[in-house]
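Quick one: structure tokens for this chain, please?
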Amino acid sequence: MYDVIIIGAGVSGCAIARELSAYELRIAVLEKELDICEGTSKANSGIVHAGYDAKPGTLKAKLNVEGSRKMKALSQELDFPYRQSGSLVLCFDEAEIPKLVELKERGEKNGVPDLRILDREELISIEPSVGEKAVAALYAPTGAIVCPFGLTIALAENAAENGVEFHRGINVCDIQHAKQGYLVKTDQGEFETGVLINAAGVHADEIHNMISGYKMKIVPRRGEYLLYDKRVGGLVSHTLFQLPTALGKGILVTPTVHGNLLTGPTALDIENKEGVETSGEGIRQVQEKAALSVPNIPGKQVITSFAGLRAHIVEIQGRSDVEDFLIEEAEDAPGFIDVAGIESPGLSSAPAIGEYVAGLVMKILKPERKEQFISTRKGIPNMALASDEERHKLIQEDPKYANVICRCEMVTEGEIINAIRRPVGAVTTDGIKRRTRAGMGRCQAGFCNPRVVEILAGELSVDESEIRKSGVGSWYLTKSDGEEKGELHE
């Protein structure tokens, strides 16, 4: 019997788990994928929004600003990449400048500090690469960039250090009322809990509809991106937005915390909740619209394209307004808490979402706070960024830190083994990629992947044919004798 079960190990679920791990509670996180951060949380812009965009008075506005304020200190506590680089909303028509003023006023109502409208001369002085059509911009110095999977993994590892159980590769099939809460039926057995938290991303409507009579519908909103090589990562120093539309904030151009350049996303509502393929049309749209902000972005420097899905609520039975985050106890299911519709700025809001949901749980369970809560976490050593002294010390402790596996990103065998052995460690090559950046470089794992597969197999004590890229069916090797593959679960 658990006190709390969280369904979904994206950034919201992991932020909630970390926050609740500070209390005397038995907590489990159930994730359908083989790793954490496999959904929306792995494929987004990595932007910490300042908070000027959301409608004043909404939960989205409140949690965005609070989350943004908390992110720097959290990055220091949990050791993940973060940089307060500032953001600019570009205006390309003098007649549209009043819309920048409206954004500024909205941001000020939301509590965003130091917002300013820049004329073209001021804009060029801080961001020389912007296109000649940009006539003005809203400047938000508190805008920032973060590693989205670095944040999510850090939250999960710290939660696990404080006793939270993570069950991966497990599918929720049904939820029923139980004597003391809820019975969660999965393809790997049953779990009973007093409080059930639904943080299932684009699948949150399916989980909600298993237990509530007020039906919800979520439509995945696909966004396509282009990632560029580090040699053009310094083309811009701020995150550049365009004036937002009804479908989102438009195409952005931004540096990443790892030194790349990123452009995107598109915004297309689809039906397939696994539809993360990219398209020629989407890529063309990103390139054409990004060129309005920054002309002559070198297309030959693209190293990969990818798509992510945002969980857009289109209907909740009995409600007319579905534009805000849905974070509340279900009306007809006491102890069942929805954390749904967490689209942009969900990543920015995650630290505040964790606190907010923990507050809801406190009212239900009233637990005691732990005396020995571990609030900090140290990340995987990074040989590419380490000083000569730090590298020498690591190699002295373990010579595997001298064996470079990924040459593009200079990731060593020691780092990969560390990533596997950590709490909630990697079991797939994508898991290694997100934790160490092995395979994130220009060749996109073309050279290092066979060695990564070999190291994973050795550390997990399985045959190399059992190692997968990510989820079901993504094996690299096929057994020649026709033997069926086994499943790898935690």
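The first helix runs from residue 11 to 20.
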